[in-house]
Structures are given as structure tokens and as C-alpha cells.
Amino acid sequence: MVNEVIEYLKPFDGGVYFDGTVGMGGHTKAILDASAPGGRVVGVDLDYNAVEAASDNLSSFGDRVKIKYGNYLNIVEILSEEGLSSVDGIVIDLGLGTHQLSSVERGFSIELGGPLDMRYDSTMGISAKEVINRFPQRELEVIFRELGEEWRAKAVAREIVKARTKEEIKDAHELSTIIKRAVAKSLKSSKVRMKIHPATKTFMALRIFVNKELDNLEAFLPVAITALKEGGVIVAISFHSLEDRIVKTVFRRYAGKGGYKAEDRWSENVELPCISILTKKPIIPNPDEVRTNRRARSAKMRAARRISHGD
After folding, report:
1. Are 163 and 133 in contact (CB under 8 A)?
2. Rounded to an integer, what is the distance from CA 71 to the centroid of its chain?
3. What CATH number is associated with residue 13?
4. Which helix (H) or strand (E) segment is 260 a member of?
5. What is the pLDDT of residues 278-295, one digit of tens each?
6. Alpha carbon distances (Å) from 66 to 16, 99, 192, 224, 233
7. Would you say residue 65 lies in a domain?
8. Is residue 264 pLDDT above 60, yes or no?
9. Sign, CA torsion 216/251/10/1
């Protein structure tokens, strides 16, 4: 949804922007092109491979772009390192990148398999392998149901625990086979036809869990809104109903439609920012984009502009 991002951000010459999920650099490149000749972008990613790829892809822009390893949650510290306290625009794309799906080293892809890791940064936190082989059945069920919205969560968790009693589950292909077997058993009585791979929702739930994606998003948005200059725009693209719900809820809160949470006011001396929601309903990809990129079909984009309290 590059065109839609540019439409709402409206990058301008001399503007400064933050790309919290730089990936291969697609959105960053579009922002740099639209803000030529003097616009700048600070891009970050938790995936070292993405940082290297984006740095290579965007090298022609010279000092107009800075690509860094980091978590978008730390936007204030990242901007401070670049001598910045605020920006004119922020974009965050929560989708799984091509560079991750095409990697066989971390087990993101159902089709390609590979070691069960699923972390964006394999040096942090626990891997999907540890979750699958160590967590009790009930905890697995909760993860699959709540984060993957998998209605067969109990059957999948039960089949995983049964399989791991024989030997450790080591790779993504093995896990997808186990899940497929569990789903097949449950479908015999439900008569439900599958439109997606049977392991899709479970894999998504594991990825969200090990990377703490929902927690990071919910903590990031209030800080990001604070880091916007007045008139600055934040754009968030989500691919999961739970992500979209978080974006919608936080935007409404800062637009004065939901009430601030107590923890939003971290200091009595800090006036909380206010935003105007630019997208009454989430923007979805046009049919042409979905035809060329099937993964875009579930994308939802929301945008908001920081305003003064008197606007």
C-alpha cells in the first residue's frame, strides 16, 4: 500500500520521517522520492538481515537516509541518537516481510520449513521451538486461540503435545504437518472447507507471541503520537484483527473519543497530544495490488494527524 501511505503522509522537501519497520526499504524509498531533494528518513528494523538489505537498497540516497537496527518501540531514543526530538511523519507496516518468508533459517514459512525460531531478532527472547516443546497444552491452546483466532486451538495443542512426547519438534515443516493432521481430524465432523493453509493461524500466533508484537504495538502508538510534530501524520498498516483493533482504540483515545488511560499521563507537566483521525474506516488494498501480492489481501491501513487541542 505504498501509494496510500504517500497519499496520507504527504512527504515534503525538508521533512523528517520515521519508518519503524523498514524491511527491504519500500516505504522508505517512496518517502525519500516524494520528499526530494531534502527530505530525510530514519528507518529501523529488528531483523539484522532487513537492516543490511535496506541499507544496500537505499545507499543511493546518501545521508538523506539512516537505517538502524532497533525496535520501533524505542522511537524516542532512536530519534535522539540522530539529534531529533520529533518528526513530520511516521509509518509502521506490521506485515511479515518477503525477506523473512523467503528465509529457511528461522521457520517463518509454512512451505519452506526450516528451524523453528520465528523471532525477528534471534538473540532475544524465546524461540517458537521452545514454546512448542515446553509450554503446557493449556497455554498453547490460549496462545493459538487468542493470538491466532484459531477455533481449533484445543485440537492443535493436543496434537502437538502428543507428538512431542515421542520426540522434540524441531522444524517448521514438521510442525505444519502436525497441525494439518490435527485440523484434518477436526474437519471430519465440522464440514468446513479451508481457504488458507491449516497451519496459517497457528504459525501467526506463534510469531506474534515470541516477538511480543501486540504488546509492542500498544506501547508504541502513544509514544509515536507524542513524537509527531504538530501537523505530522502517523500511518499504521496491520494484517490482523487484533492489531487493527489496537490501532483503532489508541487513535480514538487520542482523538478524545475514548478517554486516556491513567498510564498515558506519565508526568503532570506533560500535556498529552491530540490527533485527528484521517481514516473513518480502514483503507484496504485495491484489487490490482491483491492480485499481484496475495499477502496484501488482509491489510488495513489507518492514519491520523497530530493537532493542537484547540483544533
Report:
1. no
2. 11
3. 3.40.50.150
4. none
5. 999 999 988 877 777 776
6. 11, 20, 49, 18, 20
7. yes
8. no
9. positive
- For cell 506474534, the residue is 208
Whose cell is 483503507? That residue is 283
CA distance 131 to 156: 14
Segments forming the whole domain that contains residue 147: 121-210
Alpha carbons 73 and 215: distance in angstroms, whole number: 10
Which one-letter amino acid corresponds to residue 69? Answer: Y
192, 210, 228: which is the final residue of a domain? 210
If asked whether residues 93 and 218 sit together in one domain, one would say yes
Whether the predicted pLDDT of 89 surpasses 70: yes
- pLDDT higher than 70, residue 259: no
Determine, yes or no, domain membership for 62. Answer: yes
- 3-state DSSP: the chain helix, strand, coil percent, rounded to 5? 50, 15, 35
Q: Are residues 161 and 188 in the same domain?
A: yes
The alpha-helical segments, DSSP class H, found in 47-164 are: 48-57, 75-81, 98-101, 128-134, 137-148, 153-164
- Residue type for position 162: K
Split into its structural domains, the chain has a count of 2
**CATH code at position 128:** 1.10.150.170
Residues 237 and 303 in one domain: yes
Q: How confident is the model at residue 311 (pLDDT cuts 50, 70, 90)?
A: low
Instruction: Assess whether pLDDT exceeds 50 at residue 1.
Output: yes
Measured CA to CA, the distance from residue 278 to residue 95 in angstroms comes to: 21
pLDDT of 99 reads: 57
Instruction: Name the amino acid, one letter, at 273.
Output: P
Tell whether 249 and 297 lie within a shared domain.
yes
Same domain, 11 and 148: no
Please tell me the predicted confidence (pLDDT) of residue 189: 56
